[in-house]
Design a protein that fits this description.
With 246 residues, the chain is of the alpha+beta class. Helix content is 29%, strand content 20%. The protein starts with a strand and ends in an 11-residue tail after the last helix.
């Protein structure tokens, strides 16, 4: 994983700023917001922001609604070395997954335990089992002809957002006992679906990333709306897609 460098109080300037948009402050604000949405209950989930050569990461095991800038880990992206590490806290187990997003050009990565994300994966899993799918490792959530799809970009390096008639695809990877063990599957899903800005984790949650904090947050909100709508659509026996389209 990452190499840990020595840290002392001299590095506190990295997390000290009066600006709300500074990554250390912004992560705390996002976590408080996500807590009210039920996305990071019980210390679950996480947020990471890339700022210049540095990556700011929320710690593990801290109640997200109470998080403070002093709780932040700071890593140097190029070396994967922590240049600020709170002595009484543990690094996030999500870190290697955040790095996978940053290595592909993301500026922010959000991991939530949204109930709607979990329920969507369960519905897709059930469909695959009923259809006798040979590979549970290649599950994918698909939806089309829903207005909120317009909140999701077409793909990295592509201009514009998905349209009403486009099909949204979010790959689903199997869960593991330890968060960091998801990394290889996440990276494989990114390769199979190069246009995706999110990966669902079966019975677990979702990772969402964006070019910057605003875009990542917008996409996470849009996807959560879509996941909730999809669950309600299934309850009402409404189809997610037109099977005659690709």
């Amino acid at each position: 994983m990452s190499t840990t460098a020595g840290t002392d109080d001299s590095m506190d300037h990295l997390i000290t700023s009066p600006s709300p948009s500074h990554p250390a402050n912004h992560i705390c604000a996002l976590c408080r917001n996500f807590y009210t949405l039920g996305w990071v209950t019980g210390t679950g989930g996480g947020v990471s922001i890339k700022h210049g050569p540095h990556i700011f990461i929320a710690p593990s095991g801290v109640q997200k609604e109470l998080m403070q800038p002093a709780d932040m880990f700071v890593m140097e992206h190029a070396s994967r070395a922590y240049i600020r590490k709170p002595s009484v806290l543990k690094p996030s187990a999500c870190t290697p997954l955040f790095l996978a997003a940053f290595d592909r050009g993301a500026g922010c990565c959000i991991h939530t335990h949204s109930q709607w994300a979990v329920l969507v994966t369960l519905l897709v899993e059930r469909d695959a089992l009923r259809q006798g799918s040979a590979s549970m490792a290649e599950l994918c959530f698909e939806l089309e002809r829903i207005e909120q799809i317009k909140g999701i970009p077409k793909g990295q390096g592509k201009e514009g957002m998905l349209g009403y008639f486009d099909r949204l695809r979010v790959p689903i990877i199997p869960n593991t006992a330890h968060e960091e063990d998801l990394t290889q599957s996440l990276e494989a899903a990114m390769e199979r679906y190069p246009d995706t800005y999110a990966v669902l984790v079966l019975r677990h949650g979702v990772y969402v990333w964006g070019d910057d904090v605003q875009k990542a947050k917008t996409q996470a909100e849009s996807l959560d709306y879509i996941f909730r709508l999809a669950v309600e659509m299934r309850r009402l026996e409404l189809p997610w897609t037109n099977q005659n389209t690709n």
